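hey all, quick one before standup. I had two proteins in the batch that finished overnight and I want to keep them in one place so we stop losing track of which output belongs to which input. First protein below, input sequence then structure tokens straight from the run.
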Amino acid sequence: MNHLDQKLKFLNDKLEQLNRTIEIHLIGAHAIELHGISIGRRTEDIDNIKIVTDDIIINLIHEIGEKFGEPEWFDFAADSITLPSGYKSRLKEVSGLKNITIKLVSIQDLICLKVNAYYLRREQGIERDLEDLIKLAPTKEDISKAIGFMKTECAIDLTSKFQDNYIKEVSDYEKELQKLFKK
């Protein structure tokens, strides 16, 4: 059992004692692993995109982080990420826990999110998103869909001047990725 699964089991036991439940929707490296794809490194947190509003559960999650010495083990901020349209219809339930329902975004949605994350973080020297993409083994079609997601759904709030620049940058980025993923 990895360290995140251990914390989830501990959370589940506490929720059972309190007669409470939670549903979480996972993205990121832990979701990739729960899809059965090894990423080859220890992932530090659970990236949940479903808003948690129950203060008792929120406090319990923080207490678990303090108990295990990993206060950032549960990422509440992932709910602010732009997600591919219709992602909820593609969720896959994987939980074997009584009081925690765990749903994973689809592999295609993970590819879209990782392509976008790598675009946003690569200039900072953060390579883990590219490493995860390589593990996800996207096809050229998958990359094109991810770029389409970036151009249409991630650029919505940009003014036209910035949107034009963004679309050009993303088009150049697509060419770069297409060279990496030859399938």
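OK second protein, same deal, sequence then tokens:
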Amino acid sequence: MERPRNVVEKWFHKYYRVLIVNIGDEKLVSVDVYVNKWPFNIDRKECVDGEKYCLLYKIIDDRDDIARFFGDLSSKIVRVEVTGVKARDRYETVNIRYVIRGELCDKEIEELFYKSWRLVGVGAPSVDELP
């Protein structure tokens, strides 16, 4: 299947990538992460089968929090949304999405990738062969 022209895919690791989707004046930057924990308060959750299986969301839109964590990049970040899953008693963090205003260079995209891992409390996986 051919990728739409408004989508860019960048790989920083064999299994983890960043997707950049241009949506009008904004970009949605989606960073693959996987952490076997959920280190946030839950702002929203969508569940099935009672509460056995849920999608978890944490919204970070406080300007001071964003500035403190992302430094110079904070001027381009409108909002951060962390997504996780709950399966029975297991909680995992699986994705971080950024709403960005303005252009991003490759260095800034790479910075978002590595800061995403720190945001969930771990270092990025060691770099191995790219796909």
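Flagging for whoever picks this up: The chain has one domain: 7-99. Residues 7-99 form one domain.
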